[in-house]
Amino acid sequence: MLRYLTATALFTALIIVLPCLADEGHHQHELTAEQLGTVHFPTSCSPGVQKDFERGIALLHSFAFDTAEQTFRQVLAKDPSCAMAHWGIAKSKWRWDTDVPRREQGASEVKAGQHLHPPTSRERAYLGAMGKFYAHPKSEKYNRGAAFNHAMEKLILQNPDDHEAQAFYAWSLIDTDDDDHANRKKAAAILEKLFVEEPNHPGVAHYLIHSYDVPGMAELGLPAARRYAQIAPAAPHALHMPSHIFARLGLWQEDIDSNLASIKASRASTMHGDDEGHQFHAMEFLVYAYLQSGREAEARSVIEEVKTLPKMHNMYGADYDPNISAIVEYSAGYVTELHQWKDAVALPLLTKEDDGDSSMTYKARAIGAVHLGDLQTAKQNLQAIDKLHAVLVEQKKPVEAGAVDQDHRIIQAWIDHAEGHNDDALKLLQEIAKKDNGIFAADGDTPAHEMMGDILMEMNRPEPALAEYEAELKVNPNRFNSLYGAGRAAEAANNPSKSASYYQQLVKICAAGNSTRPELMHAHAFLSTIAKTN
After folding, report:
1. Whole-angstrom Cα distance, residue 243 to residue 255?
2. Is residue 9 within 8 Å of 145, Cβ to Cβ?
3. Rounded to an integer, what distance in angstroms lies between the CA atom of residue 271 and that of residue 404?
4. Which of 196, 294, 325, 413 shows a CA-CA span of 20 to 30 A to 151?
5. Taken in order 331, 332, 333, 339, is the CA torsion positive or negative?
6. What is the mean pLDDT of the chain?
7. What domain range is 152 assigned to?
8. pLDDT tier, 26 (very low <50, low <70, confident <90, very high otherwise)
């Protein structure tokens, strides 16, 4: 499940854990601007609820949806005439999964706010824009994101000095971005100006990170990434979110530090609602960063720790146990990254046969089997994936079905290669590589350029293999297996200087670990030999 959140809308899936502000003796006034960031959102509501309302806005900007909703309900309890509190509740309903019941609830809140006849045109415009999002709540074809975006664009034209409107509009641009990233760049331009004027605004820093959370743009997000955690230190998501930029740039220690802090903050908080599952996402990044930096023992420790955590039966409004999902993902990622093919084949199926997460286990098993020369086992797991895909299509789960279909193509490529159909194998992977958006989570995925490099090396074609590894490193800097692959390919192509460069980079990123991986041992030995001959 975590894998599909990442695949579909990573940025909207990351819901944070904050203190349970409803608990007796644990009131919301304890969370200050120093803990959540500073926002300015004037309303026509009672002056006595203004700070509470703005606290709700700050929580929204850090995706603390459950806690934000509760805050706006408390505002409404204090001031029943506060139409914008209904807007806040409706906005809090906007999660990664806007299912029909939630959309109907959101639409109901918008209508309740409109029936209070807010006195300002600005407030009416906010409610109207949210109404556009929740229109036709039963429709799965209605483009609610685009409708909201157009409405917010009109709102900021009418209210050019409203920074909150600009921030929410920028977020809607990111949410409706396409492959050329025109909307993402437009959002970044708006947010960069706001960042200068409001350096303590949680949403501005947060959304800037999302603006730049794609290959080729990530370096531009470093200032916001290094600022967001300082702005909202009480929000575990604010502590985790910078790792998106760090991971994209291969800054593994900062990635690790970010997620360790997020996990610590999550566990120090009193969990509230669905938010308590956020730590699993931070651990997903943590395991991956450990594996890239030669810290396999620490990655394994996280996986073992997950097994001891309390079980959950519902997360993010979905009926699934994130513990099991995390174990499946991290375990598949661990054996795949480390090329532990026997362990990959032996992975147990922990999820139901109709659960999309099962595909990760089948894929790891199949790839492991191919590397061990056991094509029968590989094909059996391919058949299991095909059966799972058919079930997901029948259940009308297009996102999960799409991910499973990609797993099918990857396994088929490895089987084609094993059977000598290398052109077919490379063609399958080339189509996937065209959409390579980078990976930085332990979900068992291997980037397509790297897999092509591996296949080309087995075909004794080091020059094109080197090109594939280098293509991957442009998208995933400092990725362990791509660095080592590039070094090996350069070595095989009789380019010792380039090989030494990649091996030096590999050794450097693993300096904080105590890895005994054979790849790292080879890199050390090569560099030692080069040093002796110079």
Report:
1. 5
2. no
3. 33
4. 196
5. positive
6. 90
7. 31-234
8. very low
Tell whether 290 is covered by a domain.
no
> Which residue pairs from 517-526 have beta carbons closer than 8 angstroms and sit at least 24 positions apart in sequence?
517/294, 517/296, 517/338, 519/480, 519/481, 519/484, 520/294, 520/484, 522/484, 522/488, 523/484, 523/487, 526/487, 526/491, 526/499, 526/500
Task: Give the residues across from 318 on adjacent strands.
Answer: 315
Domain membership of residue 247 (yes or no) is no
Q: Exposure of 101 by Cβ count < 10 A (0-12 exposed, 13-18 middle, 19+ buried)?
A: exposed
Confidence grade of residue 322 (pLDDT, cut at 50, 70, 90)? confident
Question: How many domains does the chain contain in total?
Answer: 2
* Domain assignment of residue 281, yes or no: no
Q: Return d(Cα 308, Cα 3) in angstroms, integer.
A: 21
The letter for the amino acid at 432 is I
Final residue before a domain boundary, out of 192, 208, 234: 234
Q: Show the tokens assigned to 395.
A: 């259940």
Q: 240-243 long-range contacts, Cβ below 8 Å, gap at least 24? A: 240/14, 240/16, 240/278, 240/281, 240/282, 240/285, 241/14, 241/206, 241/209, 242/209, 243/282, 243/285, 243/289
- Domain endpoint, select from 191, 206, 234: 234
Query: What is the pTM (predicted TM-score) of this model?
Result: 0.90
Which of the pair, 67 or 10, is modelled with greater confidence?
Answer: 67
Q: Has residue 382 got a pLDDT over 60?
A: yes
Closest CA to 164 of 31, 37, 28: 37
Average pLDDT of the residues in 167-190: 94
The radius of gyration of the chain's CA atoms, rounded to the nearest angstrom, is 24
pLDDT over threshold 90, residue 271: no
Retrieve residue 377's tokens: 């086992």
476 contacts 447 by C-beta, under 8 angstroms: yes
Beta bridge partners of 315: 318
Handedness of CA 229, 213, 90, 22 (dihedral sign): negative
Angle CA(5)–CA(11)–CA(16) in degrees, nearest 5? 85
The confidence score (pLDDT) of residue 97 equals: 61
Q: Looking at the domain assignment, is residue 442 inside a domain?
A: no
Q: Give the pLDDT of residue 7.
A: 40
Q: Looking at residue 143, which CATH number applies to its domain?
A: 1.25.40.10
- What are the distances in angstroms from CA 471 to CA 42, 47, 193, 291, 436? 49, 57, 33, 20, 10
Predicted confidence (pLDDT) per residue in 339-375, tens digit: 999 999 999 999 988 899 999 999 999 999 999 999 9
From 339, 367, 350, 354, select the one nearest 306 (Cα to Cα).
Answer: 350
